[in-house]
Write a structure and sequence with these properties.
The complex is a heterodimer. Chain A is an alpha+beta fold. Chain A has 20 helices and 15 strands. In chain A, a hairpin with a 4-residue loop joins strand 2 (about 90-105) and strand 3. Chain B has a single domain (about 1-225), classed as Rossmann fold (3-Layer(aba) Sandwich), CATH 3.40.50.300. Chain B has helices spanning about 45-50, 75-85, 100-110, 115-130, 145-160, 175-190, 205, and strands spanning about 1-15, 20-30, 35-40, 60-65, 70, 85-90, 165, 195-200, 210-215, 220-225. Chain B has a six-stranded mixed beta sheet with strand order 6-7-8-3-9-10, with helices on both faces. In chain B, strand 4 (about 60-65) and strand 5 form a beta hairpin. The longest helix of chain B has 18 residues, at about 175-190. Classes of the chains: A alpha+beta, B alpha/beta. The interface of A and B includes residues 360, 364, 365 and 467 of A.
Chain lengths: ~475, ~230
C-alpha cells in the first residue's frame, strides 16, 4: 500500500466533507476558468479586430508622414517594395494605401475624417472591412458610380444622413416586440430625422411603450441612402484645397466605434488624383502575416531592408490592444491565483480538522514505524489529491461550458458601452490547453501550500500521547 | 539470553508538582518470554512499556535492546528501530479504518519495503494463525472487537519483531474473545518464538503469563517466574 493509495482512501473516509471541499474547488475553478475564457475571448476579439479590420500586422510609412499625416511625405517605388516584401515567406499579403485628412459636409453639418484610398479587391486580402457593411447598406465599391466613398455608420449619423422608415425589415427586426405594439405602426412615410420619427411613434403609442422600445424602433427604422451626394474638401500634396462631390457607396460598422468615428474609405485612384500623388508613390504599406507570432521576425527583416522607413507593429499602432494581448495570459493566471488562494484557506481548515480527528491513528502509525516523512507525505498527498479532483471536475465543466457557448454570447444590450472601447458585443469564450496545464500546476502548488501547516501539526504529535488521546 | 535490559530506569513527568512515574527499575527480558507487567492503575505499567517501546524517553537510566542503547538513537532512528524490532498491540486496537484486515497486516511490511508478494503471503499466513483468513478483505468497522484485536496481533507480528508490547490488550474484550486472543498469542509465542510483554491487570491474562512483574508506584514490587 503506497502512500498515495492510502491518501486516496483517506479522502473517502468522510465522503460528505470531501465532496463539499471538492465541490467548492470545482465551482471555484469552473467559474474562474469560464470568466478567464470570457475575458480572453474579449481580448482576443479586440486583437483580431485591430489586426484584421484596422491596422494589419505591420505598417510602413515615411517617418515624416507619421507626425501629422502631411500628404507630401510618401513612400516611393511601391511596386518594387511590394514585390520584395512578398518574397518574405511569413507575409500573407501586402497592400498600399493613400491616406489623408478630409472634411465632409452635407447641407446640415460637416465632419472631419481620415480617408484611406484602397484597391477594393487587394484590400480584401488584408482587411475584413468588406464584411462589415451595416444592414447590407450599399456595396464594397462594387457598384459603378462617380467618386464612391464608404462611410462608417457613425460618421453617416454625424453628417445627419440617417433616415427612418417602417417597412417589412422593420417588422422582422422588431419580431421580439408584441404584434399588438408593432401592429399600430403603419406609416409608409420616410422620416428625415430621428426626432420626426419618434414624434410619429409617440403619436401612435403610449409614452411608456415608446420608452420601453425606443432603441429597438430606432435601430429597426434607421437606413441610409446610397448614391447620396456629400461634398468634400481635401488638401493636395501641393497644399491646394480640392473641393468636390462624392457619393455614398456603402455604410460599414465595426465593433470599435472609435475606429468608425474616424475612418472612411475611397478608391485609391480617386484619392490619388485628389492629392496629386504619383502612381508609384504611396503613404502607407500594410502587411498581414500568416501568424501573429511572426511579427518580430518580419519587423527585423523589414527594418534591415528599409532603414529609412518608419516600420511599426500592430502593438505600436494599437497600444491598447497590444498591452492587453501582452497581459492576456497574466490576467487569467492572476484570476485563478486569487480563487485558489481563497479556496486554500478553506482547504487548510479542512485538513486541520482531518489531522485533529486522527490524532490516535497518526500516533499509532508513528508508533508502529511510519516515519515523519511518510506521515507528512500522506497528509500532503491527501490535500493535493483533494485539490486535483476538484480542479479536474472544474476544468472539465469549464471546458464543456466554453464549448457550449463557443458560438458566442450575445450581450448586445451592452453593445454601445463595449463598442466605445473597441470590444465586440458578442463574446467568444476561449482558452488554450496551456491555461489548463497552468491551472493544474497552480492547483498542485495550492494543495502543497495548504497541506504545510496540517502536515507539520501531524508530525509534531508524540506517538505515546497521541495514542492515549480520545480521537 | 536477554534481549531487553533495563538499568536504573527513571521517568519524571514535569508538572507543577513533578510526577515520578518510574523510580529506578532494573529488569531483563529473555527471548521467547510470555510476561505480564501488572499493577494497579497509575502504577507506571504503561509508562514502562512506552519507554521500552521507544515511544517515550526515560529521565534517567538505560534501555538496551539487542546491544543497542535506544537512548542513543535519534527520533528518526528510533522510528526505524521500532519498525524492525518492536510489535505493538494497543488497548483500542488502532487499526487503519480505510484498509482491510489483510491490508492492515501488509501495511507494516510495506513500510519495511518488503516485496508485495511476500507481504501478501505473510499477511494471509498470520491471518490464518489468528483465525481470520475468511475476513481478510473486511474493513475493521465490520469486525468485532475481538476480531480487530486479533488483526492487531497479526499486524504486530508481521514485521517479525524481536518482541511484542501489548498494552492492556484485553481491556475491551469479553471473556470468550479474551480466551481466544490469549490462546492465539500463546501459540504464536511458541511457534514464532516471539517475546510477548503485556501490561495488564486482567486476571485472565495474568493466569496465562509465565512471568509476572508487579509494579507499584513506579518500582518493581515482585518479579516471579511461573511454571505452567
Amino acid at each position: 500500500m503506497n502512500i498515495v493509495r492510502i491518501s486516496w482512501k483517506n479522502i473517502w473516509r468522510n465522503k460528505l466533507r470531501s465532496s463539499i471541499v471538492i465541490g467548492a474547488i470545482a465551482v471555484g475553478i469552473l467559474s474562474g476558468t469560464y470568466c478567464v475564457a470570457i475575458i480572453l475571448g474579449m481580448i482576443q476579439g479586440r486583437v483580431d479586430d485591430a489586426i484584421h479590420k484596422e491596422v494589419g500586422h505591420i505598417q510602413m510609412h515615411n517617418p515624416r508622414f507619421v507626425t501629422n499625416y502631411e500628404t507630401q511625405y510618401t513612400v516611393s517605388n511601391v511596386s518594387d517594395k511590394r514585390a520584395e516584401i512578398q518574397q518574405i515567406t511569413q507575409v500573407k499579403s501586402v497592400a498600399a494605401h493613400t491616406v489623408s485628412h478630409i472634411q465632409l459636409s452635407t447641407g446640415y453639418t460637416g465632419s472631419g475624417a481620415l480617408v484611406t484610398g484602397i484597391h477594393p479587391e487587394r484590400e480584401k486580402e488584408i482587411s475584413d472591412i468588406y464584411t462589415c457593411l451595416w444592414n447590407s447598406t450599399g456595396t464594397y465599391f462594387e457598384e459603378d458610380m462617380y467618386m464612391p466613398v464608404l462611410l462608417s455608420k457613425e460618421i453617416a449619423e454625424n453628417l445627419l444622413l440617417d433616415y427612418y422608415r417602417i417597412d417589412s425589415s422593420f417588422f422582422v427586426t422588431c419580431a421580439h416586440i408584441p404584434d399588438s405594439v408593432t401592429g399600430k405602426l403603419q406609416s409608409t412615410k420616410i422620416y428625415r430625422s430621428k426626432t420626426d420619427f419618434l414624434q410619429y411613434v409617440k403619436s401612435t403609442l403610449s409614452s411608456e411603450l415608446l420608452e420601453r422600445y425606443k432603441t429597438d424602433f430606432l435601430n429597426a427604422a434607421l437606413f441610409f441612402k446610397t448614391g447620396k451626394k456629400i461634398s468634400y474638401s481635401i488638401l493636395s500634396k501641393d497644399k491646394e484645397v480640392q473641393n468636390g462631390i462624392c457619393k455614398i457607396a456603402g455604410v460599414y460598422k465595426t465593433s470599435n466605434s472609435m475606429f468608425d468615428a474616424r475612418n472612411i474609405f475611397m478608391l485609391d485612384s480617386d484619392l490619388r488624383s485628389l492629392l496629386h500623388i504619383e502612381t508609384d508613390k504611396t503613404h502607407e504599406i500594410q502587411l498581414v502575416l500568416n501568424d501573429t507570432e511572426n511579427v518580430p521576425n518580419v519587423m527585423s527583416q523589414l527594418q534591415s531592408l528599409y532603414p529609412n522607413l518608419e516600420i511599426r507593429s500592430w502593438k505600436e499602432l494599437k497600444p491598447d490592444a497590444g498591452m492587453q494581448a501582452d497581459l492576456m495570459n497574466m490576467y487569467g493566471i492572476i484570476f485563478i491565483i486569487i480563487i485558489l488562494g481563497a479556496l486554500g484557506f478553506g482547504i487548510v481548515n479542512t485538513m486541520l480538522m482531518v489531522v485533529l480527528e486522527r490524532v490516535k491513528e497518526i500516533g499509532m502509525l508513528m508508533a508502529i514505524g511510519m516515519n515523519k516523512k511518510r506521515v507528512y507525505s500522506m497528509i500532503m498527498f491527501e490535500t493535493v489529491l483533494l485539490c486535483l479532483i476538484g480542479a479536474a471536475i472544474g476544468m472539465v465543466g469549464g471546458y464543456y461550458l466554453i464549448q457550449a457557448t463557443a458560438s458566442g454570447i450575445d450581450i448586445s444590450s451592452l453593445a454601445q458601452g463595449l463598442e466605445s472601447v473597441g470590444y465586440a458585443p458578442v463574446l467568444y469564450p476561449q482558452l488554450d490547453v496551456l491555461f489548463f496545464v497552468q491551472v493544474s500546476v497552480l492547483t498542485i502548488i495550492t494543495g502543497i501550500l495548504a497541506a504545510l501547516y496540517p502536515a507539520y501539526k501531524a508530525i509534531k504529535y508524540n506517538p505515546a500521547d497521541a495514542i492515549r488521546s480520545d480521537v | 539470553m536477554s534481549i531487553i535490559q533495563v538499568h536504573n530506569l527513571h521517568k519524571t513527568f514535569e508538572a507543577a508538582v513533578p510526577v515520578k512515574a518510574i523510580q529506578g527499575i532494573d529488569l531483563e527480558f529473555a527471548q521467547g518470554e510470555f510476561s505480564a507487567v501488572v499493577g494497579p492503575s497509575g502504577s507506571g505499567k504503561t509508562t514502562f512499556l512506552n519507554m521500552i517501546g521507544g515511544l517515550d524517553s526515560p529521565t534517567e537510566g538505560d534501555i538496551i535492546i539487542n546491544d543497542t542503547n535506544i537512548r542513543s538513537l535519534s527520533p528518526s532512528e528510533m522510528i526505524d528501530f521500532r519498525l524492525h524490532n518492536i510489535g505493538f498491540v494497543f488497548q483500542a486496537y488502532n487499526l487503519i479504518p480505510v484498509l482491510t484486515a489483510r491490508e492492515n497486516v501488509e501495511f507494516i511490511m510495506q513500510l519495511q519495503k518488503r516485496p508485495q508478494k511476500e507481504c501478501t503471503e505473510r499477511a494471509m499466513e498470520l491471518l490464518e494463525a489468528v483465525g481470520l483468513q475468511d475476513r481478510a478483505g473486511t474493513r475493521p468497522a465490520k469486525l468485532s472487537g475481538g476480531q480487530q484485536q486479533r488483526v492487531a496481533v497479526a499486524r504486530a507480528l508481521a514485521s517479525k519483531p524481536q518482541f511484542v508490547l501489548a498494552d492492556e490488550p484485553t481491556a475491551n474484550l469479553d471473556t470468550a474473545s479474551t480466551e481466544n486472543l490469549l490462546d492465539i498469542m500463546h501459540n504464536l509465542n511458541k511457534k514464532e518464538d516471539v517475546t510477548f510483554i503485556f501490561s495488564t491487570h486482567d486476571k485472565r491474562v495474568i493466569d496465562k503469563a509465565r512471568r509476572i512483574v508487579t509494579i507499584e508506584d513506579g518500582k518493581v514490587l515482585s518479579d516471579e517466574a511461573i511454571k505452567r
